[in-house]
Design brief:
alpha+beta; 37% helix; five-stranded antiparallel β-sheet; 14 helices
Length: 485
């Protein structure tokens, strides 16, 4: 690590970032370029930015030795999250002081020290910027901490301008009043509380006036869904009031019924269109094989195909029964995660794929792969979805590589294709429900936009994580990591 920050390189690089913004670029490409500029100027081994939401944080951009962290979650109740959201805005932290999976893996990779700066808007943390250093590097100086703090403020300004950020947010708020209305000062103390606000929250005007706002205050122009202690859900928006003061107007409405209905609808649509598609795909594949190659198949092959079709039909019937019994059932609901053989799971799942996909796959697994902890059956669904995606977005005869591996805390598998690749600004949006990279009447690729959303949901329910990244030489790599036994 250099003793002094390379200000010349930092200013030149930052100028290029500003020119990107002025030319219309926004969001993750600009944020990632800023990290690339900062890393060598600060002498860091890697840079990362964590975006915070009510449900916790997630690494949305990273460079250098920290690039592998993209997509990794930080739960809201994690000690690291609490540390990042509390204390000084800029601080130096040792990763080996914590025991959560992400910081432990950072420490194992030699990244044992980091300078952290919160990106704040009006006292609300929208994220944290991390400059990571190797174990042998000298202690970061006050100058380094000052530069990281400055860059954190620059990123907060990007959020304030709504320039393609937040990645996981709901976008700009329509300038209209909801059921409840409050006006608060710079300390979030209530100065006005209308009757609808009292009805929605159950807090009278007398109880609310001159008291702290009874729920979190989102940054101006952003949307926040918040659950009250009573169990009711509010959708909250805020904006600056014009004039010389520092007052903010807060509007909110009760969305409890909408939250419940949206959850039930999303769960039903996701499960019916994807969990059910796995056995249907297998049945169709074997039926097509029997139809197209009946004369060339042996009696043994025909019986095997019929046996698989029967098994998958029974599985399909069981899935339908469960869905019809309760569309809102928790999923996957096969009990707590348990150790299973990932190698065997991958081989069985690949064997059940349609012939045109199966013949394109190469499987590479180490001789001694530790057992993963999760739900074996749902991981077969995950692999099927990722391989189907790889096949859809790559040339028909190009190879699809499936490889497995492990480190000190996780077991992983990767699906790599040689297709159209993934744009930097799409690596996170691709996991949003119903999102498609292209839309409208001229869409080149079919689909509902639920596959990767369901994949992330399945994996994270098993305490794992999944992310996308561009493949060297073209294409996309989808990586799934699960806790190891």
């Amino acid at each position: 690590m250099p003793d002094r920050t390379d200000y010349s390189a930092l200013i030149a690089g930052h100028t290029a970032v500003i020119e990107m913004i002025n030319s219309g670029d926004a969001g993750l490409p600009v944020l990632t370029q800023l990290l690339r500029v900062a890393q060598p100027a600060l002498g860091a081994a890697g840079m990362a930015f964590v975006e915070f939401a009510p449900s916790g944080g997630r690494v949305i951009a990273a460079t250098g030795a920290a690039e592998w962290t993209v997509g990794r979650p930080l739960p809201a109740n994690d000690p690291v999250t609490s540390c990042l959201l509390a204390g000084p805005r800029v601080q130096c932290v040792r990763t080996d002081q914590f025991t959560n999976p992400l910081t432990s893996e950072l420490a194992q990779r030699g990244l044992r020290r980091m300078v952290v700066s919160r990106a704040e808007i009006g006292g609300h943390a929208v994220g944290s910027l991390h400059a990571l250093y190797l174990a042998g590097d000298e202690e970061p100086t006050a100058e380094h901490r000052g530069v990281v703090g400055y860059l954190g403020s620059c990123i907060a300004h990007m959020y304030g301008d709504q320039s393609g950020l937040p990645v996981h947010g709901d976008g700009p708020v329509v300038a209209a009043l909801a059921d409840g209305l409050a006006v608060v000062d710079r300390d979030a103390t209530v100065r006005l509380w209308n009757p609808a606000a009292a009805q929605v929250t159950g807090r009278s005007t007398a109880e609310a006036i001159n008291q702290p706002l009874p729920f979190p205050l989102p940054p101006s122009g952003q949307v926040l869904d918040h659950r009250l202690p009573s169990g009711r859900w509010l959708r909250i928006t805020s904006g600056e009031l014009p004039g010389p003061g520092t007052l903010r107007v807060v509007s909110f409405r009760d969305t409890t019924d909408q939250q419940r209905h949206d959850h039930e609808r999303d769960l039903f649509v996701a499960v019916t269109s994807h969990e059910l598609r796995t056995p249907v795909t297998v049945i169709k594949g074997y039926a097509d094989t029997l139809t197209d190659h009946w004369e060339s198949l042996s009696d043994t092959d025909r019986r095997q195909a019929a046996r698989v079709i029967g098994q998958r039909a029974n599985e399909l019937a069981r899935l339908l029964d469960r869905l019809l019994a309760s569309a809102a059932e928790a999923w996957p609901g096969d009990g707590p995660p348990a150790p299973f053989d990932l190698t065997e799971t991958l081989r069985v799942a690949i064997a059940d794929l349609p012939t045109d996909l199966r013949r394109r796959i190469t499987l590479e697994v180490p001789a001694e792969l530790p057992r993963a902890i999760g739900h074996r059956q749902s991981l077969a669904t995950v692999l099927t979805e990722l391989v189907t995606n790889a096949g859809k977005y790559s040339p028909p005869d190009s190879p699809i590589d499936v490889a497995a591996g492990a480190d000190g805390q996780t077991v992983c598998f990767r699906v790599s294709d040689r297709g159209i690749g993934v744009r930097p600004e799409h690596v996170e949006r691709a996991f949003d429900r119903f999102w498609q990279g292209d839309s409208g009447d001229r869409r080149r690729y079919p689909g509902t936009g639920l596959g990767l959303y369901l994949v992330r949901r399945i994996v994270e329910q098993q305490n794992g994580w999944v992310f996308l990244r561009p493949r060297n030489g073209g294409g996309t790599v989808a990586e799934v990591r699960l806790p190891r036994r």
